[in-house]
Amino acid sequence: MNLQEYCPKKLFTPEKVVKKISNGSRVFIGTGCGEPQKLIEAMVTNPSIQDIVVYQMLSSTLAKYVDSKDFLNRFNLKLFIVSVAMRQAAFEGKIDYIPVYLSQIPEIFKSREIGLDVALIQVSPPDRFGFCSLGISVDITLAGMQAAEVVIAQVNQNMPRTWGDSLVHVDEIDYLVMHNEPLVESLPKAKDPAIAERIGHYINQLVDDGATIQVGFGHLPNEVVRYLDNKKDLGLHTQVITDGLLPLFEKKVINNRHKSYLPGRVVASLCMGSHKLYDYVNNNPMFYFRSSEFVNDPNVIARNDNFISISSALEVDLTGQICTDSQGYLFYSGIGDQVDFIRGSSMSKGGFSIIVIPSTAEDGKVSRIVPHLSEGAGVATTRGDIDIVVTEYGIAELRRKSIYQRVIELAQIAHPKFRQELIDEAKKRRYIFSDQMTPSSQDLLFLDDYQYTKMLPMGKHLEFRPLLPSDEFESRNFFYSLQEDTIYYRFFNKRKVFSREMLQKQWASVDYRRNMSIIGLRQIGRRKQIIAIGSYAEAEENAAEVAFLVKEDLHGLGIGSYLLEILEGIARKNGYNRFVATVLAENRKMIRVFQKRYPNSKVIRTGGGEVDVIMDFPPLPQDNAEPNK
Q1: Which residues of the chain have pLDDT under 50?
Q2: What secondary structure letter does DSSP report for 137?
Q3: N or C, which end of the chain has less CB nearby within 10 Å?
Q4: Half-sphere exposure (CA, 13 Å, Cβ side) for 577?
Q5: Closest among 133, 155, 497 to 282, alpha carbons compared
Q6: Which of 435, 387, 384, 442 is nearest to 412 (CA)?
């Protein structure tokens, strides 16, 4: 469409069009990388424009002027999220922050709870039918434009045309400014690639093929998603598309094939990144841009089965409370989309949420896992909403768990130098018992090499991994679920009580080298149930004593033999070349498992109804056999 022919009276220069903004106006500005830079510049540099209230999410261009003389006398900035560019201004009290969920902002505009006089937006040139596109900024921009009395649009040929609810007809726009300029780019700087890599390693373990994911604002979620590049058939339903996702699009890792809601489409609200990313979404029908009231609606999110929300935090306390928008009394970012997506994921069939957070801040001087949130820090996500927290030291599963269990889970993934302090503080607050032992101060990343999977004949699979302090409660349930004869054969007595002290000592004695315990788990709904425990402990030089237990309903499925295979592989790595075991002579099943794995084992009667079994490890084959991962 030729605008000069169709609506010449709507065409203005930037300098003339901003004169349409009356003093005292409430002005909405389009979001982030889609903001109309030239219109903002013209408005700010016109000294006759006074007493303006500006509403915006993720402001960038205004950061150039906020420190200028008389700016704060003329403009009152109210931001829904404090962007990186505006952070210092927020610390200095130069802007006002509105804490609100992004899903609610469009309705706030529509209901006139926040009245808008003028909207400054940026659009693509119109097609032959007169439809422009909001491009990479639909989010709250569509609602802000529709609610404003006057709409002024900068028409920029560099703005991509996007599919979805991004179309705006020129008849809906009051004034048009033709001005081409590069779009704002947003490329978060990697702060610590090593930490991002380790967190990405754990995220990879949590995200299954075919899941639909959301990636929150911030540099860390943007960095860790690259470690999903070996996944298959992921879907994406997210507020913001960033460059971290671009390799997953290009490799067809994200293809939306198995999404249960709007399959084949990436559902998003805005795009913030590089020009390469903007070119990728331009006129690409895979991307379906909708307003934040749709994209962030928990009920809409929940229509995606197996939905996984990935977002970040500034602090998490030992009870699971999350702070995202402030450092103490200083507003740092915003509530944003986190709560919307966390609640949507909790309602999704098979869905859950992940909070990613480095274990420390200020160059390792302070822990981000804290006994209590900093004074003044806001609780963005409550302890009742949280599912999983991931640091570079591991995964803490908090969903539906008690405060006692949460303390152990979170202390376990804190930086090793802060673990004792966190346990001590938890004791002072009566979160845990006074005799609670502290998780190991080791960096246990190497334990990820000891993750195994066994497929059962009925098609179910079991997971095997090292015992951790957080398994104390579930191991209690395991022991109490066993039959009396099983207990007798393992402990040589009819033990009735498995005390907390005993269970603590069990995991506390595990150093993962001279002393190792491996647990087997099966999925029961959203819970993982321990169904087997196998252990070895150093008995003498080059030899370790071995024992295992398997739930009775899973006997005969090769689980005991599989545990022996796993434990042997770990024992070999730690310098052992044989297992020994003391078994009741009547426990023929156990002896047969040992003999099946070690045909050349020696069974020696010792008297008292017991036998010793000595099992030398066989030579390793050339290709080095190890259990399936």
Answers
A1: none
A2: B
A3: C
A4: 5
A5: 133
A6: 442
Closest CA to 357 of 151, 510, 216: 216
In this structure, the number of other CB atoms found within 10 A of the CB of residue 88 comes to 13
Answer for the pair 594, 613: CB distance below 8 angstroms, yes or no: yes
In single-letter form, the type of residue at position 105 comes to I
Sorted by sequence, the CB contacts under 8 Å of residue 132 that are 6+ apart come out as 123, 124, 125, 126, 153, 155, 167, 168, 169, 170, 173
Calpha distance 436→420 (Å, rounded): 11
The whole-angstrom distance between residue 190's C-alpha and the CA centroid of its chain comes to 17
Q: How far is CA 211 from the centre of its chain?
A: 13
Give the model's pLDDT for residue 461: 86
Q: How far apart are CA 198 and CA 179, in angstroms?
A: 45
CB distance 161 to 124 below 8 Å: yes
Q: Give residue for tokens 């376990």.
A: 412
Neighbours of 105 (CB within 10 A): 24
Q: Where are the alpha helices (DSSP H) in 252-318?
A: 275-281, 292-295, 298-301
Question: What pLDDT is recorded for position 623?
Answer: 55
DSSP 474-492: HHHHHHHHS-HHHHHHHHS
Q: Are 352 and 346 in contact (CB under 8 A)?
A: yes
Q: How far apart are CA 484 and CA 487, in angstroms?
A: 5
* Residue 132: per-residue pLDDT: 97
**Runs of H (alpha helix) within 323-414:** 338-347, 403-413
Strand, coil or helix: 451: coil
What is the residue whose two structure tokens read 């008389």? 70
Helix (H, G, I), strand (E, B) or coil at 396: strand
DSSP structure class, residue 32: G
- The DSSP symbol for 183 reads P
Find the largest Cα–Cα distance for the chain: 106
Domains located in the chain, CATH noted: 3-178 (3.40.1080.10), 193-428 (3.40.1080.20), 450-616 (3.40.630.30)
Neighbouring residues of 446: CB distance < 8 A, sequence distance ≥ 6: 512
The CA angle 197-203-205, to the nearest 5 degrees, is: 110
d(CA 347, CA 352): 8
Tokens of 37: 């830079």
Query: Given the DSSP bridges, would you call strands 578-584 and 602-607 parallel, antiparallel or unpaired?
Result: unpaired
Residue 155 contacts residue 11 (beta carbons within 8 Å): no
CB atoms within 10 A of CB 128: 7
Residues in the chain: 629
Q: Which of 505, 500, 436, 509 is nearest to 473 (CA)?
A: 500
pLDDT value, residue 485: 86
Burial class (CB in 10 A: 0-12, 13-18, 19+), 220: buried
Q: 252 Cβ partners below 8 Å, 6+ apart?
A: none
270, β-bridge pairs? 137, 240
Q: Which two tokens stand for residue 514?
A: 């001279």
Closest CA to 208 of 227, 225, 233: 233
| C-alpha span between 320 and 258 (Å, rounded) | 32
What does the pLDDT read at residue 628?
Answer: 66
Burial 165-180 (b: 16+ CB within 10 A, else e): bbbbebeebbbbbbbe
Q: What is residue 152's three-state secondary structure?
A: strand
